[in-house]
Design goal:
The complex is a heterodimer of chains A (644) and B (325). Chain A has helices at residues 3-23, 27-50, 71-78, 89-94, 108-115, 138-160, 165-168, 180-193, 213-221, 244-249, 253-258, 276-284, 286-304, 310-313, 319-345, 349-372, 376-399, 411-419, 426-449, 453-456, 462-472, 477-486, 488-502, 507-535, 543-561, 576-582, 593-614, 618-643, and strands spanning 62-65, 82-85, 99-102, 118-122, 130-134. By secondary structure, chain A is mostly helical. Classes of the chains: A mainly alpha (644), B alpha/beta (325).
């Protein structure tokens, strides 16, 4: 079939899918949704017209009596929670104002005695001390606290304008946040020299063993301590020497929402190197995915319920093209949503390119789930599971952006990096997204394998359908090796996820644990399709067949495993856990020839063991796979002991 | 037009279809009958390329049944054909016309012609608002949208009222007049008998009889003679109006009865010949084969004689799963 014809049919199915999706929506529901949207839009537009800048529940809740010519009037006027009012003690007594700013402290004693109100002294930078009287109520106390905070912020902004930096900030401290790994190396060096003074890992910039030029640059140009994972310095910069009002006005809507725009000169305001706002913004990308997969999964299952999709199966169109056509509208929606979000939060093409494989993975996993699910109840469970797993997988590692290379297992880390203005190398992009791309393609192929009459419209249990899907990808013996190779992305993801989950534990515990987990994951990946082939009677159940299939699966897996060398691009093998996961497979740089081919023998032998069990029945398969896992784990321990 | 050779489909230990072989000539209506679970639907779906055979081959209009190109020559009407309820017949049929590369002008003409011939009213109505018979007519119209040479209809009149059933059966006959080849499956044997030129009878995955209905009747049916007498004889039973009736299978038995009646002082007052209906033949054929469950191991390739009833099953009884539809 010509490519053009295929593309035309795919497009027809895609249009059909759109018309089905729109047709299934009740018109009244659509109208109601439209009315709600119009109302929401109208409210927002009205707010914009009258100058409302977002919703602020604390807007002008405290009334402060302050003279218009007082230096404190500007402080009050610029704070959202405070509103200036006429200074009058009678109004304070009557509860019409919550605070009273008086220029002369001599009145304090008598007033306090008369009304029972409290009075404190505060000052604005470069101004004389004044007295503040607050109402003897909880609101008055809260107003005073807010007033203190307002003065502090005002002072910080004023000092930022000071030309004489030394006068404004007599003490300058440079902080450098360093990766855990470099701290560990420093500690080793320090221990070797017998000097324990540097154990905190926090150093003076001038005394750092390995001065980080990038960090220094970052810190001196940074405007947001919250977002700075490398620098976070308190050193003032020229760009910060702007009027206080400008500093506040120029902050973006998202920064104001997240409260991350302010940068203070006081040590109390220093934030740890946690990319909170970037993380939250990156997370926004995942929200639409959850809605899209609900619609997509429902559409796929709808085709299966009542055999609706049967007629498409007898049409002159390939199953892969049907699935492609049905998926295309949802992918397009996901891409549009991603682009819109990226544009809204200040991301670029990199963010879009990083999120698209995540969207593909969401759709692919949902497709397989919808093909396996037997009811909408099961589909709900499947989509929630997919959503939780993929969201966790994408989001949690991104928290450790710039802390550890493991963070790059998530494409969202790339988004965070872009939002922080960091450069992303092509190798890092491939490392973060390749498992998602490959995994998505393989999941779609698995789903297409059971997109057929015999599986779509039957109520087979999910494990049986999974085996059917694997079996559908088997043709001859050689295909066993190919399928083994195709499991690599999932093995890669599973192993990296194990590392990401376990790396917080002590190395003495996690390294052995990783070695066993890696062995188990790989043994399952190498042999599960062999078991599927035996169960469908695709292969004869003789011992020699099992050994041959095991050998072929081992070879395929070995070849695929070599692709994981890409992990070296981002320096994952610099980590002890990364070495633990990869060294036994011979993918770490600098391994000897023997170590390079030893895994081939290992994979062939252990998979043959599993295959010998698989040819009999499930129980024997599980027992054989346990034996294979133990052999594999023992090998891993041996290699790590010798070479680690 | 259709050649089927050694077609077999097994699900684990369960054999849905066992080494079926038959041919369908161009322009004939070919019936596939059998009890539930006989393998009819599985056979039809293998012909339509929906189910991959475990063994054997099927060619339709010169194409392998699994070749997507064959589907241009095929119109398939499954037993259950749920439609998209939110669409109108026009939009539904137009989509399938697009999928079969039918030009918009041809599609419009075929849609109108099919719906006219099927006498479908309310064409602008949502399919979900239509009656079951109207939905079935839409499904039949869809099977014709690509002007196929071969039509496979699985229970086309199932669940329809007598009027709509007659309409569908008449339409099927018209298809034959249009030189279409129709493979037709039905539980209602009267429908099969009234429409089909040739049939196969399936039971437990095997073809147990084949030919025209007359041929099957001659091959498997036994003509019986109903002999009515006006005297009471030992082999007779009351037949009303004071008459007695005996059912015999040979003319010599008829003559013996005549002699016995005369000896008793009476006579034979009426003799009627009875030909077995397809339903009686069907029950007779399949009833003898309801012995036990079948397994994939019950029959090895090459050991079958499709027209000879098998005797029992060789494997241990197992729980036979529902035939996948």
């Amino acid at each position: 079939m010509k490519l053009r014809t295929r593309l035309r049919r795919i497009w027809r199915v895609a249009r059909w899918e759109v018309s089905l999706g729109s047709g299934s929506l009740d018109r009244q529901t659509l109208m109601a949704a439209l009315v709600v949207l119009l109302c929401a839009g109208g409210v927002a537009a009205t707010g914009a017209v009258v100058g409302l800048d977002g919703v602020s529940p604390n807007q002008d809740i405290y009334r402060v009596g302050v003279a218009a010519d007082s230096p404190y009037h500007d402080v009050v006027d610029r704070h959202t929670a405070l509103t200036p009012s006429q200074p009058d003690r009678d109004r304070l007594a009557a509860g019409e104002i919550d605070l009273l700013v008086v220029p002369d402290s001599s009145e304090r004693t008598s007033t306090s005695r008369e009304n029972g109100d409290s009075e404190v002294n505060l000052d604005v930078a470069s101004q004389s001390t004044v007295s503040v009287v607050h109402a003897s109520t909880q609101k008055g106390t809260a107003a005073l606290t807010t007033f203190r905070s307002a003065i502090q912020r005002y002072n910080d902004r004023t000092m930022a304008l000071e030309d004489n930096e030394t006068a404004a900030y007599p003490v300058s401290v440079e902080l450098q946040y360093r990766s855990r790994q470099s701290v560990l190396r420093d500690r080793v060096k320090t221990d070797d020299s017998g000097d324990d003074s540097d154990d905190t890992g926090i150093t003076d910039g001038s005394a750092t063993d390995e001065p980080n030029a990038d960090d220094t640059d970052q810190s001196t140009n940074d405007q947001s301590g919250d977002d700075d994972t490398n620098g976070g310095s308190t050193v003032r910069t020229d760009s910060q020497r702007e009027a206080p009002e400008l500093a506040e006005e120029d902050s973006s809507l998202f920064e104001r929402l997240l409260g991350s725009s302010s940068s203070s000169g006081s040590p109390a305001e220093i934030s740890p190197p946690f990319p909170f706002s970037s993380l939250v913004l990156a997370f926004v990308f995942l929200i639409p995915m959850n809605f899209i997969i609900q619609a997509y999964g429902g559409s796929i299952l709808n085709e299966r319920i009542n055999r609706r999709g049967e007629l498409l199966l007898v049409a002159p169109i390939r199953r892969l093209d049907i699935v492609t056509g049905k998926t295309l509208p949802y992918l397009i929606v996901a891409v549009i949503a991603t682009a819109a979000i990226s544009d809204g939060i200040g991301g670029g093409l990199l963010s879009i390119a990083a999120v698209i494989p995540v969207a593909l993975a969401f759709l692919a996993a949902t497709f397989v789930g919808a093909m396996f699910a037997r009811s909408f109840k099961e589909l709900t469970f499947v989509t929630v599971t997919i959503s939780v797993f993929l969201t966790t997988y994408a989001f949690v590692p991104a928290i450790f952006t710039n802390v550890t290379p493991i963070a790059l297992i998530s494409p969202l880390t790339l988004v965070v990096m872009e939002l922080q203005g960091e450069a992303v190398e092509i190798g890092a992009y491939v490392f973060a997204t390749a498992p998602f791309y490959l995994g998505s393609v393989i999941l779609f192929l698995l789903g297409v394998g059971v997109y057929r009459e015999e599986d779509m419209f039957t109520q087979k249990p999910v494990p049986i359908k999974f085996l059917d899907a694997l079996d559908a990808r088997l043709r001859g013996r050689k295909s066993v090796a190919v399928v083994s190779m195709l499991t690599i992305p999932f093995v890669f993801v599973a192993e990296l996820l194990a590392i990401a989950v376990l790396f917080v534990l002590p190395l003495e515990v996690t390294v052995p644990l990783i070695l066993v987990v890696v062995a188990a994951v790989e043994e399952v990946a190498k042999s599960i399709h062999i078991y599927a082939g035996f169960e469908s009677d695709r292969f004869g159940r003789s011992a020699s067949t099992a050994v041959v299939l095991g050998g072929l699966a081992g070879i395929g897996f070995f070849v695929g495993e070599k692709f994981t060398a890409i992990a070296q691009v981002v320096g994952l093998d610099d980590l002890p856990l990364g070495q633990a996961a990869q060294l036994p497979s011979g993918v770490t740089a600098g391994t000897t020839l023997g170590l390079l081919f030893a895994p081939l023998v290992l994979h062939m032998v252990t998979t043959a063991i599993s295959a010998l069990g698989a040819r009999r029945n499930l129980r024997w398969y599980l027992v054989a796979m346990l034996v294979a896992t133990l052999v594999h784990a023992a090998y891993n321990f041996g290699v790590v002991s010798i070479y680690g | 037009m259709i050649q089927v050779s050694g077609l077999r489909k097994t699900y684990g230990d369960f054999a849905a279809v066992v080494d079926s072989s038959f041919e369908v000539e161009s322009g004939e209506i070919f019936g596939v009958v059998g009890p539930n679970g006989a393998g009819k639907t599985t056979t039809l779906k293998m012909l339509a390329g929906l189910i991959e055979p475990t063994a054997g081959s099927a060619t339709v209009a010169g194409f392998d049944a699994e070749d997507p190109a064959m589907r241009h020559q095929l119109g398939f009407l499954p037993e259950e054909s749920p439609l998209y309820e939110d669409m109108t017949p026009q939009s539904y049929l137009t989509f399938f016309a697009d999928l079969y590369d039918v030009s918009r002008a041809d599609a419009t003409g075929r849609i109108d012609e099919s719906l006219d011939r099927l006498d479908l009213e309310y064409r602008d109505r949502r399919i979900g608002d239509m009656s079951k018979g109207m939905k079935r007519k839409v499904a039949i119209a869809r099977s014709l949208i690509n002007d196929p040479d071969v039509l496979i209809y699985d229970e086309p009149a199932s669940g329809l009222d007598p009027l709509t059933t007659n309409s569908v059966l008449e339409f099927t006959r018209e298809l034959r007049d249009d030189d279409k080849t129709v493979v037709f499956s039905a539980h209602n044997l009267y429908h099969v008998e009234s429409v089909c030129d040739r049939i196969i009878i399936m039971n437990e995955g095997r073809i147990i009889a084949r030919g025209t209905i007359e041929e099957i009747r001659q091959q498997y049916g036994e003509t019986t003679y109903h002999v009515f007498t006006d005297v009471d004889l030992p082999s007779t039973e009351p037949a009303g109006d004071g008459r007695r009736r005996a059912v015999v299978e040979t003319m010599s038995e008829v003559e013996s009865l005549q002699d016995a009646a005369e000896t008793a002082g009476g006579s034979v007052v009426d003799i009627r010949t009875h030909e077995p209906s397809l339903e009686e033949l069907f029950l007779d054929l399949t009833g003898r084969r309801m012995a036990g469950p079948r397994t994939a191991a019950a029959t090895e390739p090459g050991d079958e004689d499709a027209t000879e009833p098998a005797t029992g099953s060789s494997a241990e009884p197992t729980a036979a799963p529902e035939e996948p539809r």
